[in-house]
Amino acid sequence: MFVTWPFLVLVAIPMVSAYPSGILQKRPFEWDSTKYLIAFGDSYTYVQGTHGLQNYSFIGDLQNFEYDPQTLLADKIVQIQTATAEGGPNWVEYLTGCGLVEGVTSPFDCEQQLWDFAFAGADISVEYTPLHHNFTVSLVNQVKQFNDYAQPVLKQTVDQSHALVAIWIGINDIGDSSKYDVDFPTFYNELMDTLFSSVQTIYSLGYRSYLFMNLPPLDRRPGNLGSADPSPNATQITWYNDALSQHAEAFHGRYTDTNVMLFDAHSELSYILDHPSQYGIVNTTNFCAGYDQPDIAWNYKAYGCPTPLSTYFWYNSGHMTSHVHKILASAVLEKLEAWSS
Ligand SMILES: *[C@@H]1O[C@H](CO)[C@@H](O)[C@H](O)[C@H]1NC(C)=O
Ligand SMILES: *[C@@H]1O[C@H](CO)[C@@H](O)[C@H](O)[C@H]1NC(C)=O
Ligand SMILES: *[C@@H]1O[C@H](CO)[C@@H](O)[C@H](O)[C@H]1NC(C)=O
Ligand SMILES: *[C@@H]1O[C@H](CO)[C@@H](O)[C@H](O)[C@H]1NC(C)=O
């Protein structure tokens, strides 16, 4: 099991969890001196870049896989209503404070630089699930692209001893595969084998601190509520999260000079769903139909939404609102502080 060291679990709110957040630590970790967050994942994590594919990436896509150093160095994070999949800043932006302000921000201008290679709609690998679009960059390809085009440039400025690699992936995988005719625990372990061989590539580039986020309670998405056959169901999510936690632990066992952190996003988000009023949330069961309309901030009633978007847990059928990302980021931050030596 994951152990928390040097502290026991320090949480503001009591919770019971099958996969408690924890750190497996062999080297000093200090969030306050972390200068770089290198992120991989899907729409929960992607940020729009001025040199990215609109609505999908910070930089490049599968058809534009290669990029030159100038493109990366000049790229800026865009912050507008449509620049994330949540209608506002997402968890990595709140966590680093990088790209939070309206307009564009160069990662170089941030105290904690966010280098975000997540791609909206990504799964882990085409070995298991088809691409959402022919331009989608899977997690495996995000890491390949990072290895080939980003790291050769970033290594000139990024001090890896002050870098944290954050990975949140599986949201699309578990949905896309939920009706497969397979033994799911075995299948999720295969997915994790592939994910962690990409993590090993990142390790070989010199990165030693890792943050893994597990899957949210996707069985409680609006589309799944009241369904006799939610897709994915709670059992599948438990199996996936177990596989992630076991592989994260095994990775740390193999590479003992790493810090491997697991944030139990499942528990945190379940707690918010169960205690919405503590967070100013009134709507956990549905999303506002006009969520992506330009006037949604003030004109929500015109779209049949009794309360503002920020009082909703769900932004749309599969994503949480920016408000929830903000709460999540502060919970992650609290852990990262607690895990700091
Ligand atoms: C990006 O998403 C916005 C909001 O959903 C949409 O209006 C716009 O057309 C999309 N852009 C592209 C290039 O798909
Ligand atoms: C990608 O898919 C689009 C839409 O289906 C198609 O028009 C385009 O030719 C495809 N591009 C490539 C490179 O396959
Ligand atoms: C969820 O789906 C899996 C795979 O179809 C099935 O084995 C399991 O019993 C389901 N769990 C629930 C709670 O429905
Ligand atoms: C939740 O949102 C839906 C869709 O906007 C709306 O119809 C419903 O009345 C809301 N529920 C509450 C409790 O506000």
Automatic annotation (TrEMBL):
The UniProt record lists the keyword Zinc: no
CDD domains: fatty_acyltransferase_like (cd01846)
Keywords in alphabetical order: Hydrolase, Signal
Top-level taxonomic group: Eukaryota
Pfam families: Lipase_GDSL (PF00657)
Signal peptide: 1-18
Cross-referenced InterPro entries: GDSL (IPR001087), GDSL_Est/Lipase (IPR051058), SGNH_hydro_sf (IPR036514)
Molecular-function annotations in GO: hydrolase activity, acting on ester bonds
PANTHER family referenced in this protein's UniProt entry, alphabetically: A, PUTATIVE (AFU_ORTHOLOGUE AFUA_2G10760)-RELATED, GDSL LIPASE/ACYLHYDROLASE FAMILY PROTEIN (AFU_ORTHOLOGUE AFUA_4G14700)
Protein name: Lysophospholipase A
Organism: Aspergillus ibericus CBS 121593
